[in-house]
Amino acid sequence: MEINGKKIFMKPGRTNQEDRDNFIKFWVKCMRLMSDEEWSKQQNLIINSQLQGADHKTYLKVKGLNRKLG
Amino acid sequence: MELKEKEIKLNRELSELDKFALEFLSILKKYTDYVIISGYVAILLGRTRATDDIDVFIKPISKQIFSSLYRELKENGFWCLNAESEEELYSYLEDKLAIRFARKRLSTPNFEIKFPKDKLDEQAFDNAITVITKQGKIIISELERQIAFKKYYLESNKDNEDALHIEELFRGKIDYDKVNKYRELIEKRKKEHGNKW
Lengths: 70, 197
Known about the structure:
Chain A is mainly α and 70 residues long. Chain A is built from three helices and two strands.
């Protein structure tokens, strides 16, 4: 991946956890090459999509909250 | 992103989660001091995941002040997921239980507010960091505390990954003597109260 003229790559992990950890290290390297605005736009795709897809009734049940949505 | 003393300047584009946090905190801060202690800290600082809830310690307040806070939250479109009665909600806080607030007709994201249970919790207010965003300030507990709690108290894969993100991002700026001091206090608490206290 090339960010602002610098190529960076993610080292594959030998286990799922190592791979996840390597992704975190890779992502932090990406963040350092980008402005806050640039990296946060990418990150917001994940955050905003989770919030938009939330199932609120099920969430209350899972959390053991015996209330109707307010 | 820039860490200086006890401030982080963050020019990020705000997510829906950040906007929710700033809206809730703009009311909460009128009534008491707060400090955010949860995974939201890592997310605010760029970790690529979302969350259902934002955990926050608030300094203990009287029932009267809680009553005003609760009224203003309701007037501004928040509801409490745990109960409706003010007395019941305040009794939960007094019992050191967390209560959750979300925007009306939604359950997530929600703010989980609680009083500190002991000195270790109270210490979250010490050396807190102010994150300055384009639309407001957010107070978070110090990075060393975040790392120690995630690695040695919460200990899930997700929490270890949050700690790794913070460690990588602030490499060279983390005081590991302080992390280890927190670790000792955490181990002591675990011996006295178990892991799930």
